[in-house]
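Hi L.,

As promised, Molybdenum cofactor cytidylyltransferase:
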Amino acid sequence: MIFGTLSTTEAAGAILAHTVAAGDVVFRKGRRLSEADAATLRAAGVQEIQAARLERGDIHEDQAAERVATVLQGPGLTASAAFTGRVNLFAEAAGVVVIDRERIDRLNRLDESITIATLPEWAEVAPKQMVATIKIIPFAAPTDAVALVEVMSALPERGPALRLARYRPLKVGLIQTRLPTTKPSVLDKTAQITTDRLARLGGTLVRERRSEHKAPALTSEIRMVQNLGLDLLLIIGASAITDRRDVLPAAIEASGGIVEHFGMPVDPGNLLLMGRIGAMPVLGLPGCARSPKLNGFDWVLQRLAAGLNVTRLDVMAMGVGGLLAEIPTRPLPRDRATEANAMPHAPHVGVVVLAAGQSRRMGELNKLLAPVEGKPMVAHAVDAALGARGIGPVVVVTGHERGQVEAALPGRAVIFTENPRYAEGLSTSLAAGLAALPQGIDAALVCLGDMPRIAPRLIERLIAAYAPTEGRSIVVPTHQGKRGNPVLWDRRFFPAMAAVAGDVGARHLIGEHSDEVVEIEAGDPTVLFDVDTPETLSTLSPTKVRTS
């Protein structure tokens, strides 16, 4: 890759290294300059720029990131579209991340242009939580380095370097022992905390039993539950386990089981016991398991709930990072869902398709119902949204000929909302669509029902560019410098958008918040093309259009 100062007379095809602002012209870092761009810069008085030019043997940063992400994307993970050389991997469901650390380390040592950052090994994740990010540091990566990553990642004998082990619905039994001084309320509270702990992992406490804190009594209780088809048996004693010959391990062995390991280098949680009766794992719990706070038992339980085998060597390897008692940021399990939502996650982007207008310029024809390549025009816009990865709910706003528009979209997973004020203009449909989006939406993509050429891939690129924490709260597609549709808006703009009046959209907000805007070059004029007249419609579809 060639990097340095270029004259704007030879800048066509180069990639801007730094944002250029001259007068009304603002070209952002990473923009690949066209001949027209170079001419615009010269007209604005810009003579030189800092730029990069790809050479033979280079792969553009986005293509390189996509290739690396493709080979790292193991089961249970989804990938974002590439943007500025970055692809993020997200968890499809709740579970535990399984990482081949040695392989990730080796891949990160291959070439400084290619970086892979992940969560810690065995991290618990929520649905849509970010698991890893692949970032190409410069504007291009060497082809040979990317190819070597692909080879080293494809090791069938070792499995994927990154994958998600999903939680499965464990059926769990709990036995608690008691002494004469044990309060029933303590046992009741422990049962409830255990129920809640399992539920968060998708499991169920199907049987709880109580016995005296004596080996024969506990052995009898174990035998009563071991034929219930349990996936896991938990035992917590009225007194902590202090030795392999104590009450709990003795009862496990008397029931035909074995004790595999006692103790763990995690605090709290040191006095955990691991055993097995036949194929059923048995855990003797430390006293800290009576509390909802994170402890070593949680780490073992999470892996078992994710269907992962936990050996004594695995437990012995938990020491680094195992000092939990003095970490104030360790949350209670009931709070961890909130913490996961605060972490980087795949954006929850809803779509609002505006399909309520009267098509006045089309005469008596409702253009949204006009056939375009075998289906109604509005169906093209809706299907593009439904076909894009990373999209949440799709809201279709209807008004004029509501019943016919809804009938034109059979079987599609959309939310219909009626705008009874559609005759007052576009702004009323926009407000109705935003109001119909569910809680928890991070942003909304506003689509026009009369733009049948928009593709799912463009929508994915808009979502990939959305990053409000990095100042990219409004994402606008462009073609040769002209702004088009659809536009993606961060939810903090929803109130201002809903307050717009008349037959206009929220376009003026883009100018008012230019520092929050990022433009995405579409590569073709589809983002500028909408259908307003019979003449325009006739260029799209060979089907004869009835105008009366």
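The chain has four domains: 2-53, 58-166, 171-338, 349-540.

Thanks again for sending the construct details.

K.
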